[in-house]
Amino acid sequence: MKASSKARYSLHLIIDIAQRQDAGPVPLREVALRQGLSLKYLEQLAKSLTRAGYLKSVRGAQGGYLLMRPATDVTAGDIIRAAEGDFLTLACIEASAEACPRQTSCGISRFWLGLRTAIESYVDNITIAELTTENEQRAPDGPDEAQPQAKAPSPLPQT
């Protein structure tokens, strides 16, 4: 399975804002420079995250974006769903009218449902605050700012 660029970069965007919003609204043009992403693409992602209630736009010369809720109250799953929709949508595990006719008799549908449940459980238990902390420990703003830091235990798998 592949994570889409929308999901990945929505997480990068929200983490970047979470790291810097204490100084005020975070302009997307600065995020674009730090993340090496197109400003137009970030504008699309920010629009989706604003509509979903995770970001707030502040207009004006000192404008930019802020989180609508504390980073401790938003999960990676929330952001991925806002960017992409539900996880692992397959006819064989949906309760919709287009559900697979073999849904109740097929052993494979239980596998897909279990996989979706495992993914949702994982992403719904990692907060943006945790990802922000992990990102701060691994990726300083620039090469001159790299300083060794004490590493707190991470809920993320070690790479």
Could you tell me the mean pLDDT?
82
Reported CATH architecture:
Orthogonal Bundle
Query: How would you spell out the order of helices and strands?
Result: HHHEEHHH
| Structural shape | elongated
What Rg is obtained from the alpha carbons, in whole angstroms?
A: 18 Å
Question: Major β-sheet, in short?
Answer: 2 strands, antiparallel
In terms of per-residue confidence, which ranges show pLDDT below 50 for 5 or more consecutive residues?
142-153
Structural class: mainly alpha
Distance between the termini: 18 Å
Strand content: 5-15%
Give me the secondary-structure topology:
Elements: H1 5-20, H2 28-35, H3 39-51, E1 55-58, E2 64-67, H4 76-84, H5 107-123, H6 128-138
Antiparallel strand pairs: 1-2
Describe this structure in words.
With 159 residues, the protein is mainly alpha-helical. The chain has a single domain, classed as Arc Repressor Mutant, subunit A. Helices cover 47% and strands 5% of the residues. The protein has six helices and two strands. The protein has a two-stranded antiparallel ribbon with strand order 1-2. Helix 1 crosses helix 3 (39-51) and helix 1 (5-20) crosses helix 4.
Nutshell version of this structure?
This protein is mostly helical and 159 residues long.
Descriptive key words:
159 residues; elongated; 6 helices; 47% helix; mainly alpha; Arc Repressor Mutant, subunit A
